[in-house]
Amino acid sequence: MNDAQDPISLFQTWLARAHEVETDDATAMALATADASGRPAVRMVLLKAADAHGFVFYSHSTSPKGHDLAANPRAALCFHWAKLERQVRVEGTVTPITDAEADTYFASRPRLSQIGAWASRQSQPMSGRFELEQTVAGAALRFGVGTVPRPPNWWGYRVIPEEIEFWQQRPFRHHDRRIFARVGDAWEAQWLFP
Question: Annotated catalytic sites, by residue?
Fold first, then answer.
């Protein structure tokens, strides 16, 4: 790693390389949240943007992760790119993105994904697959061939990083680990023992 590089640029470089090499989705990331009592939960989500403002993903605000983030607006992310033998961990605060950003991204999604966002009562119990198919069909009938607006409970979240750690596998567990911590508007870097 170049000592002078900021962690966002370095992340974008690593992500671009992952897109070239990884056969699975290079944007897949583990998202860890905790509820108001501190009970942790982790699940896989997809990164939709990463820049100097943070790391963005989308979900229903009424989902368990939405409830966690409403009660405790902090999260940790972990990207693992097995073929590259690399991992990136991100920790920080979470804020909702703007309605305009969410509307723009939602409009770019395939129509069936838009319909699915209306049909899904994410993580709520259902009687079986047929109930999901019925709610999808109902949402498709509701919107016909017209534009599908963004559901009011479908949001984007931005993880504003406070720390970003880069890990590169090396032989004999002599891995490279470097952590960047935000100090004011700047980043401070520190090498870590593997």
Answer: 173
pTM, two decimals, is 0.93
- Residue 12: how many other CB atoms lie within 10 Å: 13
Q: What is the DSSP letter of 97?
A: P
Tokens of 104: 């723009």
The Cβ of residue 105 has, within 10 Å, a number of other Cβ atoms equal to 17
SS3 112: helix
Number of neighbouring beta carbons within 10 Å of residue 149: 13
Q: What is the pLDDT of residues 55-84, one digit of tens each?
A: 999 999 999 999 999 999 999 999 999 999
Domains (range + CATH), the chain: 7-110+152-191 (2.30.110.10)
Give how far Cα 46 sits from Cα of 28, 34, 122, 144, 169, Å.
5, 19, 16, 28, 23
Residue linked to tokens 């406070």 = 162
